[in-house]
TrEMBL record:
The keyword Isomerase applies. Pfam families: AP_endonuc_2 (PF01261). This is Sugar phosphate isomerase/epimerase. The keyword Lipid biosynthesis does not apply. It comes from Occallatibacter riparius.
Length: 322
């Protein structure tokens, strides 16, 4: 990978220094325009440990829920939901959103997508017919965990989505209308394996699905996996700023052969300092949630610590007050 040992060690040292003073970080966070967070299972499947790291080591007041105890969030039973709520209260953490796998399935009647293999490590094995029930489950979870946001996708990426795009938009519209009945927001993640992947595609989807509670989970790292995509500033400039409702922080490096690999935040092609500065200026006030995906430090937790240090450095460079 393109991250040098010296760069990794400097990031690790910065991460250790950052983690040494959570009280200071929490004090700084009071002036931060963003809800700085981390996806819990990027640290550990042990939910108590993940929350401890987020609150005590990273000094965060927010966390994003995706999977715990080797279960997707949507597969938790009532006892596990109660246990998770107890742990959140123990560490005084609020939930940014339910990071569900909603609509991460094949679109019926379309040619089989190359992405339809069971590649989703978060166990999104629901088929299309189960999506309405999955949405209802997500609504229940949002209420249980005190968040107004549910993450969704727009189906495994098709070679040619045009014949199906209007129907996909209708499905997203219907889901947003259902969520609105409970005053909840659907945040569509631009995901390289799905039909909305880049800033350009996200702008088009938002223009078609105009419900006010249908917003974007902006992920510049995902967009950067496309060789001709420059998520910031090019892709970001196309987005309606009042429709961005969540943000994932990650980065990638592009290799000479055209392939890419995940990179820690602060490295790679995503200009996170510039992106965060622009978002603060444009009035974005929701979550910036670390989803590093990079595993160059050896374990999910160690890698997330390095990326969190990189994210905090980018926030500082951006002059956000975080």
């Amino acid at each position: 990978m393109s991250i040098s040992r010296r760069e990794f060690l400097s990031g690790a040292v910065a991460g250790a220094a950052f983690c040494a003073a959570p009280e200071m970080v929490r004090a700084m966070a009071s002036s931060c325009p963003f809800r700085v967070a981390v996806i819990n299972d990027e640290i550990s499947q042990d939910f108590d440990h993940a929350c401890s790291v987020a609150a005590k080591d990273f000094g965060l007041g927010w966390i994003e829920l995706r999977g715990m105890w080797n279960k997707n969030i949507t597969a938790l039973d009532d006892a596990q939901i109660a246990d998770a709520k107890r742990i959140l209260a123990k560490y005084n953490l609020k939930v940014t959103d339910i990071a569900s796998p909603l609509f991460k399935v094949d679109w019926p009647g379309a040619p089989l997508s190359k992405q339809s293999e069971r590649r989703d490590t978060f166990h999104a094995d629901e088929n299309f017919k189960a999506q309405d029930a999955l949405l209802e489950k997500c609504i229940e979870l949002a209420k249980a965990f005190g968040t107004d946001r549910i993450r969704c996708f727009d189906f495994w990426r098709l070679e040619d989505v045009k014949p199906y795009r209007a129907a996909i938009n209708d499905k997203l519209r219907q889901a947003a209308q259902r969520a609105a009945k409970d005053k909840l927001v659907l945040v569509l993640e631009n995901e390289m394996s799905c039909n909305t992947a880049t800033g350009e595609e996200a702008a088009a989807t938002l223009a078609a699905v105009t419900e006010s509670n249908f917003m974007l989970n902006w992920d510049p790292g995902n967009a950067a996996t496309f060789p001709n995509s420059m998520p910031y500033p090019n892709g970001y400039d196309l987005l309606p700023k009042n429709r961005i409702g969540h943000c994932h922080a990650k980065s990638v490096v592009r290799k000479p052969d055209g392939k890419w690999e995940w990179a820690p935040v602060g490295k790679g092609v995503v200009d996170w300092a510039g992106q965060l500065k622009a978002m603060a200026k444009d009035g974005y006030r929701y979550a910036v949630s670390l989803e590093t995906h990079w595993r160059g430090a050896g374990t999910p937790e160690a890698s997330t610590r390095v990326s969190m240090a990189g994210l905090k450095d980018a926030l500082k460079q951006a002059g956000t007050g975080c």
